[in-house]
Amino acid sequence: MWLAPAVLGGLVALLLSLLYMGGILTPDSSLHRLPIALVNQDSGEPLPEARQNLGAQATERIASSTAPESVQWRRLGMAAAKDQLASGKVYGALVVPADFTAAVRSLGGDRPSRPTLTVLTNPAMGSLGSSMAAKISERAAHSASAGIGKQLMASPRLAGTDSAARLLFADPVAVQTKPGLAMGGHSGLGLSAFYYVLLLVLAGFLGGNIIHNSVDTALGYADVEIGPWHRRHPTVPISRTQTLLLKMAMTAGVSVLTTALVMVACLALLGMDAAHLPLLALFSYCSCLSVGLGVQAINAAFGNIGQIVSMFFFIALALPSSGATIPLEAVPGFYRFLGTFEPMHQLVAGIRAILYFDARADAGLARGWTMIGVGVAVTLAFGFLMTRYYDRKGLHRMVPQPG
């Protein structure tokens, strides 16, 4: 009696601790090619004895200020940068304005205009990911300012200037940060997509297990026990394949109700910002259904321990590899690998595209639909192949009736 619960309970506690804490403890040291747009709009003439204008020099310094394996600076035009912000392909952007060199030239004149670099955030990619990109961009911008300052301080034009002017020339560039993509006030700072998907996954997971247990109870393969009352229904002679088909059909029906109630709670009662409601409803239903069908297939294959297996697959492994709270580019490689097939990452990408990125296919919606289709196909094949194999081997679930 003691051995099995102690071993299983201890393993579950250990694995959950390793999985969850292992994914969040080292985002800075685990950084792997975080994509940030780098835009140079500077159209000014180079300074004397310089081959490039200051905008080109600044972008070179910025690109070399971070290790290439940690940050992926994408050199884009302004239109392309805005498009990638609006499709979730970058976590932010650093922009050199068109008058950058001209503003630096003006510092020594009668009407100085301090040059400015602009950091654009992408809150739709999650508050932490956007914040990390902003901090990296701000550090890189200040590094570029210091490099330009050294260049100016070496200029003979500054001979005889006062200490206040020389202090300005030492760090001449101002850095401003502002949102690069507008977000509604009821979007949870870019986290509403993650929590909405979490609700759909939990609805599918819990609903699937409730149906699994209820059907087994009704068919006489499990006891009914409520408080002190206990009962066992007469066992219905039904094959494993027929039982799985029944459970999956019920899952398809119940998922309509659970998905509708999730949407009513989030949209109607709480006022979550959302658009493309018919598409959101369809994608939400298919997401919840795919999880529920997966639960039924795993339970049919593994029996009682299937609920632990499905919990690890749909919850324990899926949460830290979803890329929703901490970007996949800031977690250890094991979680990036999980993100290629774990369902929550695919569902978050699809829901983000619908909620934040105008339902663009290239923002993750196409991948979300594709992975739902692949997941359902694999689930059906795995579930029915296993139950058919058990039936053909004569491994029936019939048990002796209590006397």
From TrEMBL:
Keywords for this protein: Cell membrane, Membrane, Transmembrane, Transmembrane helix
UniProt family annotation: Belongs to the ABC-2 integral membrane protein family.
The keyword Transmembrane belongs to this UniProt entry's keyword annotation: yes
Residues that span the membrane, as ranges: 6-25, 193-211, 249-270, 282-302, 308-328, 369-390
InterPro entries assigned to the protein according to its UniProt record, in alphabetical order: DUF3533 (IPR022703), T7SS_ABC-Transporter (IPR051328)
Domain DUF3533 intervals: 11-372
Originating organism: Streptomyces cremeus
Protein name: YhgE/Pip domain-containing protein
Record has Nucleotide-binding as a keyword: no
Its membrane topology: Multi-pass membrane protein
Compartments where found: Cell membrane
Predominant location: membrane
